[in-house]
């Protein structure tokens, strides 16, 4: 609902908008402003040389009522972050205790990546990140390693040497290739971002290790411009960044209306896995299990019985149960239920269909039954999940 009579709040956006994360964040902010504005935004046009002014001078010029900031060069922000206006901060090196931060639930992201690799049949685990520089890389590594440990496995970890970023063809790339060459066959690697996952794939190509036959790769962020254009399309953990932008704008609006409460962080949860060929286990997994999974995923929008899969693979039910459990760590019935609920959740967020319409489309017997299953799996009813995560 817009307010055409009040003076629009002036909001400074110190986000470049060059990367997928920032573009999604800006899109979420715009969604909120379009619904509840109007707002007046100030942004720096960074590619114009005459506009390359320090953030402090920009803020002095703009005199905004609030700011949403993405950390780039930390020392620029030490002064402006102390200003007595509502501030939302998206950190890269470390969160700040004196402002509201936008933070990914990085440990949950790492755990979800490890689970995906395990369910696809990979039993060797590795993490590739920049833990010395970025808190989110360390946390993703921790979540990944903890989940691998829960599966009874230790994870190999590559960390860019202090002061070196390996996202380039420099001497760090040689060290990355050496690390990849030493990994055992059929290793599943989580890489801290999609951009870095692309570099890991390039390093695998350079040393002759096939993806995903020898090395499976999963990144974070689901930047389709990176993932889809890779030589082998990259799987990725999806993040609800657009919703975080919306929530950041709402937080600003709430604080402009009343006395600011203590800083409250905005948490970005993982939404699921965007699975692509880089973690496809067809070449490494039990071929019978691979056939069963392919059948399940092709018919994910329809009710599936275990007997349907038994007919497809021509094995006894007991033999299929044992082989499926050994390969994925799950029973067939649990696997079917979880994948269908994940598809249900995507339809909640990506369409305007009602819960009843989605239930009917997917062949569930009743809204009540699917709502009960959904709440058990996600901890929220379908409508509460949509309200919390839809952008």
UniProtKB/TrEMBL annotation:
Start and end residues of each HTH araC/xylS-type domain: 290-388
InterPro entries registered for this protein in UniProt: Homeodomain-like_sf (IPR009057), HTH_AraC (IPR018060), LacI/GalR-like_sensor (IPR046335), Peripla_BP_I (IPR028082)
Gene3D superfamilies: 3.40.50.2300, Homeodomain-like
Assigned keywords, A-Z: DNA-binding, Transcription, Transcription regulation
GO molecular function, one term: DNA-binding transcription factor activity
CDD domains: PBP1_XylR
SMART domains (alphabetical): HTH_ARAC
Protein name: DNA-binding transcriptional regulator
Species whose genome carries this gene: Pelagicoccus mobilis
Lineage: Bacteria, Pseudomonadati, Verrucomicrobiota, Opitutia, Puniceicoccales
